[in-house]
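Hello forum,

I keep getting stuck at the same step: I have a sequence, I want structure tokens, and every attempt I make locally crashes halfway through. Rather than fight my setup again tonight, could one of you with a working pipeline run this one for me? It's a single chain of 80 residues.
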Amino acid sequence: MKDYLAKSKTKPPGTVKTIKTRFGEILSGMRSGGAYSFDAESYGRFLPLAQDEGMNFGDVDFTPDEPGDVQFLAITPTRA
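Reply #2:
Ran it on my machine without issues. Output:
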């Protein structure tokens, strides 16, 4: 995440605070309708846990469009 933020140049370095978010917090947020973005590494950790909770997300191709790019997947749950 720090590397991505440094490359994005959207804010001056050191002005964005990142914190560890645990699966239970993400799950609670999604159940409340929150959207989350994942890179390949974080999605790989998230997916098996989400599937254990009955969430139906599949494999995603994170191949970048350009060398050096980072691909993200945004998930916005729908409410039944």
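The CA atoms of residues 27 and 36 lie 10 Å apart. If your local run keeps crashing, start a new thread with the error log.
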